[in-house]
Design brief:
Divergent_DAC, alpha/beta, TIM Barrel, 14 strands, nine-stranded parallel sheet, single chain, 12 helices, 390 residues, three-stranded mixed sheet, membrane
Length: 390
């Protein structure tokens, strides 16, 4: 009877001989049954969505070939520049322009720049950023880059970024006197801002020297004064009637004379600064091109601050003129007044021209002021900037 239990149905087989052979039969059958159940369970599990293995994408032959191309031994690390509006730009080693046709942004080394730091590298400070220039009949004019950078951001002078008493000193008239321009560039500390007269000579030469020396730069544009035309700022003076009508050719002529500047400063221009209808298009042009405007502080009737705030234009105004009297003692007194203003309100801006007495007085005073805990900063550091990002 026991032997019949191990016979396949419908078949007559010889009896199984021996106890050992009969005992192996049930063990083998049970093992097979367990194996079949386990295999079925695994297959069922693998068919579930959560357990399905990820599909393997085929590799195109061109990709295989590209992986075999060796990187050049001297390749410089790329730069990953975080953009203010989100995202990033892969740029070349000096961070000055986006790379083109870089198939894989993760190849090579990546150096992450400080977010929001768009300042031009000091090694290239004397060269204009091509992405921030618009070629016109008046020459290259500053313009916002397609990536959102402004000349104000890129050409801004360096400073500590800390609090404390801060003073900006702007020395203008560079390009008018060759000896004065040379002394200003060579002798004034890097924190002093240099303003170049649009009607001056050898401007590109002095601009490059100043930028190599670490100076921030402004353009000094002639604007209509009271008493025009008997009192004139030059043949390319921006007149009130033209500015109010949006005719800015004279301004554009001045702006095309140099590059690498953070903004425009008035030369004369008391009447234009007092006329909101003329200031509106002018300051709108500054804002559109990513520049600041510095009012030299010579006109008590200026409306530039209010119009700049309404236009969202980066703006600064000088607190006093340092060298209205060119006597060394008078210049020293004005610098002391400037320091008292800065200690009272935290910051102050003074303007001067590139006269010998002014350069001597400012150079010596700056050296002594540093020992009293005063930092000389570029004028952009003290400008009100509605687009400033922390």
């Amino acid at each position: 009877m026991r032997e019949e239990l191990y016979r396949p149905l419908g078949q007559t087989l010889a009896p199984v001989a021996g106890t050992r052979r009969r005992a192996r039969g049930p063990w083998l059958g049970g093992a097979c049954l367990v194996a079949l159940v386990a295999a079925g369970s695994v297959a069922t599990a693998l068919m579930q969505p959560g357990f399905a293995p990820p599909p393997v994408a085929p590799i195109a032959p061109s990709e295989v070939v590209a992986q075999k191309v060796a990187e050049p031994a001297e390749r410089q690390p790329n730069v990953l520049r975080m953009e203010p509006g989100g995202g990033f730009t892969i740029a070349d080693a000096d961070g000055r322009r986006p790379l083109v046709d870089d198939g894989n942004p993760l190849t090579g080394s990546i150096r992450v720049l400080e977010p929001g730091s768009l300042r031009q590298p000091s090694a290239f400070a004397h060269l204009p950023e091509q992405a921030l220039l618009e070629q016109t009949d008046f020459g290259p004019l500053p313009v916002r880059g397609t990536d959102g950078r402004r000349p104000l951001d890129v050409y801004a002078g360096d400073w500590s970024g800390t609090g404390g008493t801060r003073i900006a000193i702007v020395v203008g008239g560079l390009g008018v006197s060759q000896s004065g321009s040379m002394r200003a560039v060579e002798e004034l500390p890097a924190g002093v801002t240099l303003a170049f007269a649009a009607e001056g000579n050898s401007l590109d030469r002095w601009l490059q020297a100043g930028r190599r020396g670490g100076h921030e730069v402004l353009l000094q544009a002639p604007m209509e004064p009271f008493g025009y035309p008997n009192v004139s700022a030059g043949p390319h003076t921006l007149k009130v009637a033209d500015a109010a009508a949006g005719r800015l050719d004279d301004l554009h002529w001045s702006m095309g004379r140099i590059t690498n500047y953070v903004g425009v400063m008035n030369y004369m221009g008391a009447r234009l600064n007092a006329d909101p209808a003329a200031l509106q298009p002018f300051l709108g042009e500054m804002s559109k091109r990513g520049l600041l405007y510095l009012d030299d502080g010579t006109s008590p009737r200026s409306e530039a601050r209010d119009v700049a705030l309404a236009n969202g234009t980066p703006f600064a105004a000088a607190d006093l003129v340092i060298d209205a009297d060119r006597e060394p003692e008078a210049i020293a007194r004005q610098l002391d007044v400037l320091e008292r203003i800065a200690r009272a309100k935290g910051t102050a801006i003074g303007t001067a021209s590139a006269f010998d007495a002014s350069i001597d007085g400012i150079r010596d005073w700056v050296a002594a002021a540093a020992e009293r805990g005063i930092e000389i900063v570029p004028v952009s550091a003290l400008a009100f900037d509605p687009e400033a990002r922390s």
